[in-house]
Amino acid sequence: MNRIIFATGNAGKMREIKAILADLGMEILSMKEAGVAIDIEENGSTYEENALIKARAVAALTGDIVLADDSGLEIDYLNGEPGVYSARYLGEDTSYRVKNANLIERLEGVSDEKRTARFVCAIAAVLPDGRELTTRAAIEGRIGYEEKGEGGFGYDPIFYVPEFGKTTAELTAEEKNQVSHRGKALQLMKEELRKR
Fold first, then answer.
1. Where do runs of H (alpha helix) occur along 22-159?
2. pTM for the full model?
3. What's CA 13's distance to the chain center, in Å?
4. Comparing 45-49, 87-91, 119-123, which segment has the lowest mean pLDDT?
5. At what angle do helices 181-195 and 11-21 cross, to 10 degrees?
6. Quick count: other Cβ atoms within 10 Å of Cβ 145?
7. CB–CB of 167/144 below 8 Å?
8. Mean of the pLDDT values across residues 132-140?
9. Is the pLDDT of residue 71 over 90?
10. DSSP bridge partners of 27
């Protein structure tokens, strides 16, 4: 089996994933590219649980190596919100422009040093022999005062990375893959897959 199916339909995410996993020498497919069309309810209480729910569901249908991720934005001033509910924050069909505007509004008047936040990502793998692996990584930053940048997706335009002096939506693809929560968690998973 020389292919990995990544349980996502997000095109932006798939670009990142394919770039990072390219040197594994395996075909990397999205669910759609693999012909898998199922709705998966993510009802776990942690990023790892949600990633495993997705990976198990797709693995049960394919028999391939299946990877899935779950990630979220944790804002310290808002007690870790939106956290594991990041994708469903304010409703699943709500645009990220609206979600981002809401979070900026909720932080109105909050000083820079109290706007600390992180993106967290867990990656789960389900292997054809039934083994399950998980990795987790994070990137620390702050919530900006307005959306900036055209790259990335989701909360990227409001997540400011002090070491670069810009938001994750302003980073180049190469910069983002080096420092992002998903990039780091995927690198860790890549090492795990090489050991198998």
1. 47-62, 96-106
2. 0.90
3. 7
4. 87-91
5. 50
6. 14
7. yes
8. 97
9. yes
10. 3
Confidence grade of residue 1 (pLDDT, cut at 50, 70, 90):
low
Average pLDDT, the chain: 93
CA nearest 125: which of 20, 34, 51? 51
Measured CA distances, 187 to 35, 62, 93, 99, 147 (Å): 26, 24, 31, 29, 28
Residue 82 φ then ψ, to 5° = -80, -10
Q: What angle do CA 1, 67, 167 make, to 5 degrees?
A: 135
Q: What is the CATH number of the domain that holds 178?
A: 3.90.950.10
Contact criterion met (CB below 8 Å) for 49 and 109:
no
- In contact, 171 and 151? CB cutoff 8 Å: yes
Predicted local confidence at residue 10, as pLDDT: 84
- Domain encompassing residue 77: 3-195
Q: Is the dihedral of CA 69, 184, 102, 110 positive or negative?
A: positive
3-state percent breakdown (helix, strand, coil) of the chain, nearest 5: 40, 25, 35
Query: How many whole angstroms separate alpha carbon 12 and alpha carbon 29?
Result: 13
Number of domains the chain contains: 1
Kindly calculate the radius of gyration of the chain based on its CA atoms and give it in whole angstroms.
17
H or E segment and range at residue 136? strand 132-143
User: Smallest Cα–Cα separation from 103: which of 71, 138, 141, 146?
Assistant: 146
- Nearest Cα to 7, choosing from 66, 48, 72, 53? 66
Query: Both tokens of residue 15?
Result: 């670009």
Residues involved in catalysis: 70
